[in-house]
Amino acid sequence: MNLKSLKRKWERTKVERRNLVAQEVIVEQRESWIDLNTIQAKVIFTIVSILLFGAIWELAAKLINNHVILPTPISSFKALYLLIQNKIPLGAAGVGSFESMLLQTLEITAIGFLLSSAVGIPVGYLIGRWRAAEAIIDPWINALYAIPMVALIPLLYFGSGSLIPVSVFDYQGDLLPDVLVSFIMTVFTIIINTYQGVRLVSNSLVEVGKAFGASENQLTRHVVIPAALPDIVAGMRLGLGRALLGAIIAEALLSTNGLGYTMLAFQSILNTPYMVATIMVIAFIGFVLLQTPKLIERRLFKWKETERIKRGGNE
Fold it and tell me: Which one of 124, 204, 227, 303 is CB 3.0 to 4.6 Å from 191, fit for a cystine?
């Protein structure tokens, strides 16, 4: 190979490198234009997705042209406004004020979630830390978790009055069966997440603690729980959604108040706009319940950000 051919090859290499750098700059500019790590970009994408969903909803409602099957977004939001103003349509028997139904649903959700956390975290830690406890408890958890929880509602309703004194929870009516349904729907999620978090704690961390003479109590407080805490909090975040779902199901089947009962009451009189409005309230509560712990989780566990998998976008 002579000197001229080497020179031509070098020039081609320089041009290719220059083009490659130019392409990388263009890609970086495009990525910076839609930086998904900024709050503004996330808000914009959320608004765009909501508008897109609203347009599809409006188009589907116009094509169906039957407000009993699918009301338009405008009629649903109008019904939501009237519902908040306590303007209940005729025929919706037993539907109380908006404040009372909202407070009852939140009350059942909160009590069911707190009871589930108080039971689920210790049980999950127990079976995740000791093999004997796992061998005894884990088969029962797997068996009960596989059972459709809705099938247990009649047993919970008829058995709650005889097994537990009503005065323990029932300070505003027959809330005890509803709380038990919310508890059953939530507790297994928290148990399983806590169990996975404790079981997957790095053994090297535990061995280092033992090398420094840490007792079992000190290992629990300073090694195992901090390492498993992200999984525990993730389980609690999922448990909040399950607790709300359990509260809605219980109110729909057992109660005479709350958002679940109200939704079915509007369905029974074929008032679909009011039913959709109730569903929107439930969806908003679920969104807030799931997003609030997520924000707390990001602030408390910033050290986990370095271990996160890279996803599409700018992460």
Answer: 124
